[in-house]
Amino acid sequence: MAKKPEYIVPMVRRALQILHFLLEHRGSHGIGEIAQALNFPKTSVFKILYTLESDRLVAKDAEDRYSLGLGFLPFEAEIRNRWNFTDVTRPIMERGVALSGESLNLGICVDDAIVMLDTVAGEEFFIMRHLIPIAPLYCSAIGKIFLAEYEEEDRRQYLENTVFTPRTISTLCDEKSILADLKTIDETGTAYDREEYEYGLSCMAKGIYARGELIAGISLSGPTSRLAHKGMDRMEEILADVADALAAEPGLGSLLQL
């Protein structure tokens, strides 16, 4: 949902954007590289990284290049200790993978982005994947499910404030195409990513609802050619059964709340 801009602290937002950059771009990166990629002043990037390094949230190597630091490990451990949602979701997802042979992915929407919580892998395939735990709404199947649920004003703000970057030649980057796609999702309840996020990889998604509220999305992904060979209708049937089974689990909404 749209946030009130007057409550946003610019320097904190910049720090978070730098952390997201380091998460999405593996390896180490220099101050100049980060500043150029995010269009931030070098002095601001230096001060933010210096502060984050003091709490070990980033690490600096001998060449003054930065990566995510070990300071995040206690956060990860605490989250994993508190959450046991996979005890509920894993058996259902594993049954879906056994029937389809394709990967199933569970995600939620946090601040206009999809956070992937869990994946059960299907059959192997040899496609170079650059998937990350955080995906945009406009070019991921689960993201489209959530975007289709946005109220008109929230959707308008998202479309106005988002820089649409084409990950492939199939990525929908203009408002007219995106709105037409969302209209179809409203009508069918299924969202498709047809090689919009990664070449050679297609994905379909359904929403998971609790008491009428969208709490998560479940997607089925695999090589485009293999999904077509197996039959997209059959894959969608399996996905729908998985989504219904997850929605029927009492208390899942509470477990999935960040």
UniProtKB/TrEMBL annotation:
Pfam families registered for this protein in UniProt: HTH_IclR, IclR_C
Annotated SUPFAM superfamilies: GAF domain-like, Winged helix' DNA-binding domain
Entry's Gene Ontology molecular function annotations: DNA binding; DNA-binding transcription factor activity
Presence of the UniProt keyword Secreted in the record: no
Residue span(s) of domain HTH iclR-type: 9-70
Keywords, in A-Z order: DNA-binding, Transcription, Transcription regulation
A GO biological process held by the record: negative regulation of DNA-templated transcription
Transmembrane segments: none
Domain IclR-ED: 71-252
PANTHER family given in the database record: HELIX-TURN-HELIX TRANSCRIPTIONAL REGULATOR, ICLR FAMILY (PTHR30136), HTH-TYPE TRANSCRIPTIONAL REGULATOR RV1719 (PTHR30136:SF35)
Protein name per Swiss-Prot or TrEMBL: Negative regulator of allantoin and glyoxylate utilization operons
Lineage: Bacteria, Bacillati, Bacillota, Tissierellia, Tissierellales
